[in-house]
Amino acid sequence: MNNSHETLLGQFIETRKELHTPDPQAASDILKAVEKASTKVYEVISRAGLANVLGAVGSENVQGEQVQKLDLFANDQFIDALTSCASVAAILSEENEEIITLNPSGDYLFATDPLDGSSNIDVNISVGTIFSVFKRKKKGTPEKEEFLREGHEQVMAGYVLYGTSTVLIYTCGHGVHAFTLEPSTGEFTLTNEALKTPVDGNIFSINEGNYHTLEKGIQNYIGFCKKLNEKGKRTHTARFMGSLVADFHRNLLKGGIFIYPATADAPEGRLRLLYECNPIAMIAEQAGGMATQGKERLLNRKAKEIHERSPFFTGSKVMMETALRYLDE
Ligand code: AFP
After folding, report:
1. CB 302 within 8 A of CB 153
2. How far is the CA of 296 from the centre of ligand 1 (A)?
3. Does ligand 1 lie within 6 Å of residue 177's CB atom?
4. 201-256 pLDDT tens trace
5. Whose CA is nearest to atom 20 of ligand 1?
6. What is the CA(26)–ligand 1 centre distance, in A?
7. How far, in Å, from the CA of 242 to the mean position of ligand 1?
8. Counting atoms of ligand 1 from 1, which one is nearest the CA of 265?
9. Which domains are present in the chain?
10. With a threshold of 0.90, does the pTM exceed it?
11. Quick check: 152 and 158 in contact, CB under 8 A?
12. 243: Cβ contacts below 8 Å, ≥ 6 apart
């Protein structure tokens, strides 16, 4: 069902080429592949309990984490869809130890966590796909070293949130645009152009189970968030779903801060730089928010390994600035 006044993803790119520079054709091809793959992922997730896709496969991925059946399904969908996309030379996925060559003559590299938060699927909580795109600097058979770049070099970043509705949020460096999936046609329709995040907010999102292993500055910032006002009422509210895309998306729309710092269990941080932190950071900045790896801007960090992890702080400008002051103390 598409009303004539609605703008579909393909039409938006076609009519707003200036938002998709330097290469609107490649942006269109890549986003069409994301649309195709994520629609299939949506279809299976939305009937997960019926489709025999719940649970783990019984093996661990390169991160040492349990691989869920839907992780593999989603990974296959993105590899298949991008194989038909001539612009993409190679894909780096959380689910594959090495990069996979798709179309060696393509000019772009695609990094993805095809199904982030997948441990939440069995309990019916929102999950997401996160993706990042770099332009290649050379031709020929792609090598994994080509992915070892700084995040500000991304030419496109985005995510799909499979929530109460399925939304695609992306940027090509010219603002953040939001589309909602119409399940009956499998097409994404523009629902928010040039989305901006509130300058301030009151949601803080952190896994407090790690509290006693956090550095002092972060503990103090959490203490600040829990302070009461002069009327004895709370000043902030805590929300943490354990699903980065869902936690980030809520804070993006409502105003908040998401923190996944170094912990005792994850001394380098829990989240992956190239296909979790980088794309979310680009979206955050393009929407007027901030993202750091602690005190430094996340997008200035150069990856040393394709699956490396990073501490990650992202959110509304005022909340981020307050958190950074606590880190400095
Ligand atoms: P899974 O994909 O293994 O569920 O991990 C999700 C995630 O990478 C991210 O989405 C969450 O913010 C984070 O891990 C939660 O991790 P903890 O539950 O260990 O705090």
Report:
1. no
2. 23
3. no
4. 999 999 999 999 999 999 999 999 999 999 999 999 999 999 999 999 999 999 99
5. 207
6. 31
7. 5
8. 19
9. 9-192 (3.30.540.10), 203-328 (3.40.190.80)
10. yes
11. no
12. 116, 117, 120, 125, 126, 127, 128
